[in-house]
Every structure is written in structure tokens, then in C-alpha cells.
């Protein structure tokens, strides 16, 4: 079983920055696609950013130019640097581990961390 532990959420004023971290308890971290998703109250969970084993990244249009996803395989950790935060970024952010290309049930979620941006 893979466990994902998130940290870095909190309260910040609009225009400020936060960095989220997610550490995985898996020896297969280096071959997994990692991602960040978020869910605001009353809304569906949506993709924020993903990063592959080869450091290819993908971002939601709403965060392009403001957020940066990165990974450190030596630390089994994925990061989300969030700059120029806006009130609409307020949500619970979830870390995702995806190894379904090799294991059918190889998809796991972190516990979620709250990000609140005040106007």
C-alpha cells in the first residue's frame, strides 16, 4: 500500500505564494506519474498539474504561468510551487500517485491540504 503525506497548505493573501509537498512511501515513486488536484466547496475535483517520470509537465489553463510542479526522486517527493495566488485558487489540494500503466489498482491519493486565499 502506498501512503502519501501532504504538507504546506495554509492561509495566504491574494498575490502571495505557497509551496505544497507530498512524500510517497513507495520504492516505485520514480516510475509513477505524480499530480496535484484540487476541489473547491460545491465543485468537482479538477486537475491542477501533472509530472511524468521524464519530467514532462501539464497544467490546467487556470494556473499556467503561476504554478510549477516538480519532483525529487531521491526524496520520493513532488512539489507544487504556487505564486500570485488568487481567491479562486482556494480549495483542498490532493496529491496523486499513478502507476496504473503497470498495476491496475496503482492509483493513490493524499489526505488533502487546505489552501485558502483571502481577497
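Q: What amino acid sequence fits the structure above?
A:
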Amino acid at each position: 500500500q502506498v501512503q502519501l503525506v501532504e504538507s504546506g497548505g495554509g492561509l495566504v493573501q491574494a498575490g502571495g505564494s505557497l509551496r505544497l509537498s507530498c512524500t510517497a512511501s513507495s520504492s516505485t515513486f520514480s516510475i509513477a506519474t505524480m499530480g496535484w488536484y484540487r476541489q473547491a466547496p460545491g465543485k468537482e475535483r479538477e486537475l491542477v498539474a501533472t509530472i511524468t517520470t521524464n519530467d514532462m509537465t501539464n497544467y490546467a489553463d487556470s494556473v499556467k504561468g503561476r504554478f510549477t510542479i516538480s519532483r525529487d526522486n531521491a526524496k520520493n517527493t513532488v512539489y507544487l510551487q504556487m505564486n500570485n495566488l488568487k481567491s479562486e485558487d482556494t480549495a483542498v489540494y490532493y496529491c496523486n500517485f499513478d502507476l496504473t500503466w503497470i498495476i491496475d489498482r496503482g492509483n493513490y491519493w493524499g489526505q488533502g491540504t487546505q489552501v485558502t486565499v483571502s481577497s
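Q: And what stands out in the fold?
A: The chain has no helices and eleven strands.
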